[in-house]
Specification:
By secondary structure, this protein is an alpha+beta fold. The protein has two domains: 157 residues, 3-Layer(aba) Sandwich (Aminopeptidase); 126 residues, Aminopeptidase. Helices cover 27% and strands 30% of the residues. It has nine helices and 13 strands. Strands 2-1-3-4-5-6-13-7-12-11-10-9-8 form a 13-stranded mixed β-sheet, with helices on both faces. A hairpin with a 4-residue loop joins β3 and β4. The protein is globular and about 65 Å long. The termini are close together.
Length: 344
């Protein structure tokens, strides 16, 4: 498969490209020290919202969440790249999330460019991401690069397909108004609901998560360390993290809600999210998913949230889309998942 080739700027604009390493942006030579992490992520938020006013990067990720991802333990800071014009204005960014499993390297890329530079910088950002994956996967027999694109961004789709990306999956963003009453949904006999209450519960929760999604498309094992870092997110609310517990104490199903209050204040909206919902194999078809989903939605409602959103695999074999439709969710956006095998 042909790899990306760097082409000259179509507009004749000169760009300064910089890679984040510790507290400096340094390509081949050391540049001046950049502003704080919060400052340049605020620039990224403003850039993305020029193209996507909701700030969504895929079916369930907001651009305002990227800073927290960047600050996860052991995240390599070289996986973030910024492009500025000669006046120092941010005109593009790429942020890679790289996983290594079974000698296979996979990268997931978030990226965007200023509207005036569409068709100019995207290919260079994709080239950077491929080069970065080659650095990480020098001895890997297989390297894959993934990214998402909203279905109605036709120019982005054309760009990706010209760079030999192919579509592999469709995802939906769904939304439901909370300005309405919701019926109760009873748990099966002797099942109980509880909140994730202590560090000691994390191991059991991770085992439940992995057991719930092991048969899902593109599943990656979740680690205790990753979940521990989630719980340190400043927007994490324990009252929105629910677990259905079987009579023998087994964690059987879960639902995690999320509110980014800073983003709601900035936009004037009152949005919440269902970030995770799953039922462990062996406990499906009991109504646990519906019951725990409604519980979390009511908690969001009690927190003065007016609309709840979630992302879902449109081709899921677990009938998740029908479950969400059954409690009032409707599709508001479709996202295409693109993939490319990267040659060494």
């Amino acid at each position: 498969m042909t790899t990306l080739k760097k082409s000259p700027s179509k507009s004749g604009v000169n760009f300064r490209k910089s890679t984040f390493v510790e507290s400096h942006f340094t390509p081949q030579r050391r540049l001046h020290e950049e502003a704080s992490t919060a400052t340049f992520f605020a620039e990224i938020v403003d850039l993305v919202k020029l193209n996507e006013p909701t700030g969504q990067l895929d079916e369930d990720t907001l651009v305002c969440d990227l800073q927290h991802f960047f600050e996860y333990p052991n995240v390599d800071k070289r996986n973030l790249h910024l492009w500025r014009d000669i006046n120092g204005k941010l005109v593009g960014f790429g942020q890679l999330f790289i996983s290594e499993e079974n000698e296979q390297i996979e990268g997931y890329l978030y990226f965007d460019v200023h509207p005036t530079q569409q068709g100019v910088l995207e290919a260079e950002i994709l080239q950077w991401s491929e080069e970065r994956l080659r650095e990480v996967g020098k001895r890997s027999p297989l390297i894959k690069l993934r990214t998402r694109c909203r279905e109605n961004r036709s120019l982005r789709q054309v760009l990706l397909e010209k760079q030999y990306f192919t579509t592999e999956r469709r995802f939906l963003t769904m939304a439901c108004s909370l300005n309405q009453p919701f019926s109760s949904s009873k748990l099966p006999t002797d099942f109980t609901l509880q909140q994730l209450s202590s560090e000691g519960d994390i191991k059991a929760w991770v085992e439940m998560f992995n057991g719930s999604f092991i048969d899902h498309w593109d599943h990656h094992e979740l680690s205790i360390a990753t979940v521990s870092s989630w719980l340190k997110n400043p927007h994490y609310k324990p009252e929105l993290n629910w677990v259905a517990v079987a009579p023998d104490g087994t964690f059987a199903a879960f639902c995690v809600g999320y509110i980014n209050q800073e983003e709601n204040t900035r936009t004037g909206r009152k949005d919440g999210w269902i970030k995770l919902l799953g039922t462990r194999r062996g406990f499906r078809k009991l109504g646990l998913g519906r019951s725990i989903l409604l519980t979390c939605m009511k908690q969001l409602q009690a927190a003065n949230i007016e609309q709840v959103k979630l992302g879902v695999d449109a081709q899921s074999l677990t009938s998740a889309t029908r479950l969400y439709q059954g409690v009032g969710f409707e599709a508001v956006n479709t996202w295409l998942s693109y993939i490319k095998e990267v040659q060494l």
